[in-house]
Amino acid sequence: MNNEFTILVVDDEKKILDVIEAYLKKDNFKVVTAVDGEAALDALSKETIHLIILDLMLPKLSGEDVCRRVRATSNVPIIMLTAKAEEDERIDGISIGADDYLTKPFSARELVVRVRALLRRSYRNTIPLADVLSFNNGDLEVDIKKVITKKQGRTVALTANEFKILTIFLTSPGQVLSREQLVEKAFGIDYEGFDRTVDTYIKNIRHKIEDNPKEPKYITTIYGMGYKFIPNPNEVK
Description:
The protein has about 240 residues and is an alpha/beta fold. About 40% of the residues lie in helices and about 20% in strands. InterPro entries: CheY-like_superfamily (IPR011006), OmpR/PhoB-type_DNA-bd (IPR001867), Sig_transdc_resp-reg_C-effctor (IPR016032), Sig_transdc_resp-reg_receiver (IPR001789), WalR-like (IPR039420), WH-like_DNA-bd_sf (IPR036388).
């Protein structure tokens, strides 16, 4: 199943890049490589990437800046690579959005194990990853890459934050998500808004994708716990 996932590896040291690429391909992952920060962002704009292995010390655009820019629009898992072993450096990496941290020199075998573990955590119980997702016999369609949502064939205008929230639901079908989980997954742990703002986003999304927002079928409320996305409500009995 690993060949369903594409890994972006970003490092300006060709030897390290080649070793990581070889080990990942041996484990049947698809691999895209970049040698600087700008090339990494360019690859992200052209490819569907499921995980990033990101060196901090990069030319043109640092790994920290790449991470911040990625986190502004995406929750793709990120493993940071660095020669800095200090605790403060690791904490800084996590605080700007890294999901895992590995200090150079490292074992390529350990890196692959961490990649597999992070993918399992990130995409557990997810729907098949594709550019265009269709639900309820085409009643609801979401183009992840183009950021377009359609209800019964008509485009509906979601704000950037509404689309982020909806995307979290799409990748966690049937899973109950608390407000805190939605905030962290969609906007990051440093988000300064209130948890209750999620209710407003969900109310707006419901008005745009539900047949009857007062009786939602896609995004249901699980009282005392949070919300759950039902991908094919007509099949639920």
